Amino acid sequence: MSHATSDLLAPFPRVSLCHQPTALEFMPRITTALGGPKLWVKRDDCTGLATGGNKTRKLEFLIAAAIEAGADMVVTQGAVQSNHVRQTAAAACKFGLGCHALLERRVPDRADSYEQTGNVLFDHLFGASIEYRPSGLDMNAEAIAVTEKLNASGRKAYFIPGGGSNEIGALGYVACAGEILQQSADQGLDLGWIVMATGSAGTQAGLVAGLHAAGSDVPVMGVSVRQAHDIQVKNVHGLAVKTAATLTDTPLPVEKIIVDDGYVGAGYGLPTEGTLAAIELFARQEGLLFDPVYSGKGLDGLINMVKQGFFDDAKDVVFLHTGGAAALFAYEAQLAAMG
Ligand SMILES: *Cc1c(COP(=O)(O)O)cnc(C)c1O
Question: What are the catalytic residues (predicted)?
């Protein structure tokens, strides 16, 4: 498929990991149930690698960079139930690289199974070596220190930041921006908004940079899963500017970074009642699986914004489904309690 961003991405080293384009599907039942604009879902939960998710697109560029650097292994970090670490471990296997992961015990008061099931189960299946850290450290600094130690001992380790969120990984979402624009044109959407969950910032930064470089003014609403508004805007904008600078000379104004921090609840990895209700609603209306850490909070935002009339001027709204269902197993008790 040719689209608005494929020429821009041609110069960058890239491996193939992702089933793409991912589908853009209409959600008729939830559209009727909520009574707002037409709601569509961009199925990046189906990127094809190890139960899918948004990190797969980023890893196409990050793994290529690791191979270019002559690496024999990658080092990365995330929370215990990190979807990024799971996808990185799988991608490393596919290219014969080792994977070492630092997992931060970021989420308080977890059930015993939290460090065994879900993404952690898959990390082990992919043969990743794992070490744990307490919460509150600078985890990228920790992982860089481990990378340097490995390299001093003769390994060729390549550091991939948490969430794959740097200007290399964000290129994966420049590609996604091109897909959404092309599919919207092909499927006859009058695209008013794109809504998504935002965490380590690379997905929103890449998406906004890609739309910007393609000359599109479609706004992106990032529903924060962790940080307060001003911090998240700063994080996303900083990375979007760096990413856009590799694609276009046109400056990317901070006004293009839109964040709502009203759905974080008690903190990262802690679903609210709204998060869990959103997951259940979309499961029962559309047969879709969303997750309690990221996409469920994003959906909670989407539902409330539709109900409040925020999108009333829009005909079509796309929710970017970033994946994460592998983590549902680590939240079994909370989900079961919903009945
Ligand atoms: C990592 C992740 C996000 C957030 O993407 P960032 O690039 O870190 O902002 C959203 N949803 C899921 C399921 C994720 O794993």
Answer: 82
